[in-house]
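Milestone M4 deliverable, item 7.
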Amino acid sequence: MAADAPSEKETAVPTGQESERLIFKQRCKLYRFHDGQWKQRGSGEITYLQHEDSGMVRMVMRQDKTFKVVLNHYISPLPDNTLKVNFGNDRSRVWTALDYSDDGSDLMTFAVKFPKSEEASEFESLFNKAKEINGESDKDKKEQLPKWVDPYSDEAPAKVQDETKVADPGSVSQPGAQENPEAENISQPGAQENVQAQNQGLQGFQGLCYKAASDMQAQINRFFFGAPPAQERSVDQEQKNQGPGGGSKTRSRKGKIHSRK
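Output delivered:
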């Protein structure tokens, strides 16, 4: 008799977030300034989590596929803890925090880049709100931020769902497009004559440029190489070299000219 196969039971793996409420989640790319240069920390979903009891807010991000924690720190309420636009890019923000994602805690500078500037603005707004909440000593006075809702889920309000739908620019008709369907086929008076005049002017301009370039090249050749080669001399130059009797002129070593018949 075959032994019974062991039953497979699903085991819940604790994430450490069971007592926290998700108040923000968005895809992004995370960078960290380390060893004097910016290095990509990973791509994934960056989140804000608020504890149900203490009300403290922290920032957590896990890397795609591996689910490795690449960012984990509380939002410090200190005044010098600021979130700034990264080098004028409205889709990116930079800040410094005491991070616990690696072994121990290190003061690190991070930069995050979102697909849209609106997402970066929302991220910054919640960052400043979390500073105020974490700075409140009385936990009973800490504001409980609303739970994050996926805008594409059924739980999202109808207004949010409508805002996520982006109209196709190609489907939007231009004003007066249907009123004048043959407007593009109407030719302007004198259009053909203007085109011919432009072509003639262009040909004349190209001819002037070609002549100027040829003259300049000839001047450069004379400057560097002197007179052109003997086989390219003109007939007038050959007649000047001939003497009165039809012989050619020759120059002696002393500079005197002798004619040969």
